[in-house]
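Forgive a beginner's question, but might I ask you for the amino acids of a protein and the tokens describing how it folds?
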Amino acid sequence: MKIMFSAGEASGDLHGANLARALKQLAPDIELLGMGGEKMRAAGVDIVYDIDNLGVIGIGEIIRKIPFFFRLRDFLVDTMKKEKPDVLVCIDYPGFNMRLIKAAKAAGIPVIYYILPTIWAWHKSRGKTIAKYTDLAISLFPFEAKLYEDIGTNVLYTGHPLLDSVHPSLSRHDAFLKFGLSEEKRTILLMPGSRVQEVTSLLPCMLEAAKQLERDYGDLQFLIPRATTIDRAMLDDIIASSGMAVTVGEGNVYDMMNISTAAIAASGTATLETALMGLPTLLVYRVNRLTYWLSKILVHIESIGLPNIIMGRRVIPELWQDDVTPDNIADAVLPMLDDGPHRSKLCEDLSAVRRTMGESGAVMRTAQAVLTFARERGIHEAVQ
């Protein structure tokens, strides 16, 4: 059996790697190939295109790279035709994968979509595309599965994969030693994102806020986990320009969260990860003005953080666009640093997020669903 993947960002690489390991565990002889990154390669996937620095987030950025994405789509379609996988598994990255599934369908390749487009937030029309071109959609949330089912999608709810993977691998003591940090100081985790545009937009502002927090609170240390899609030299240059002392960590991101007192994180999967780790977090979101203007028109939710969407209320604070300033960041984070009522309430709410998300085992359930689909599809085609 042969499975092809299409994952386009650091978070997709993580989910793809976890799924690949589960597939190998259930079917050791399975062949895995596709677009992905370092984590998927380490999990046994033959990477035909590396996603290093692939992610873009703004309308302007996407427009400039349209010719490149067409070439990439054609390359992956040619790969599908050559390799003839039993199924294509698309992971998140809807701006690209929504077009790829149409081409895959035209080429006669069955499609599974994992980590579905967020039609409950915006681009509801994408739901109809998923229903038409996807043979099986795998949903992370029960409310999301219901939405897709209502528009005629063959959808299966398996649970959220982060419940399986979000946990520290080191003791707190060993983690402090690994990153060269003091156990006596409070640690603030800076998570500016996994895309170059996010990092260049958010990290300088985060570092200015860090200066204020250090001045107002004192005795703090700062830690940045480097996403595999971000060049270390770029991070070092931005940090050096700020004049701040910041430790850049490689790998072990959940151990970084486990030793941190608070986090400042770009909108995305990271805020759900910090919630599952029980780490008080400020979400920050800033894109170019055209993208933001369109999102104000098209997005139909009051919060963009996954913990807040899951709970249906503000669990973690959010700063959007022009509100993302060093002063506002420092003001939001400062109350998280002391063991008072504010921090206690935040931690209670974060515990509720984990309880609401259900049971672990989602990755293995997803892998079993992929294998079952591929086998049944193969039997059906053999009968035909």
The chain has a mean pLDDT of 91. The two ends are 19 Å apart (CA to CA). The chain has two domains: 2-159+361-383, 172-356.
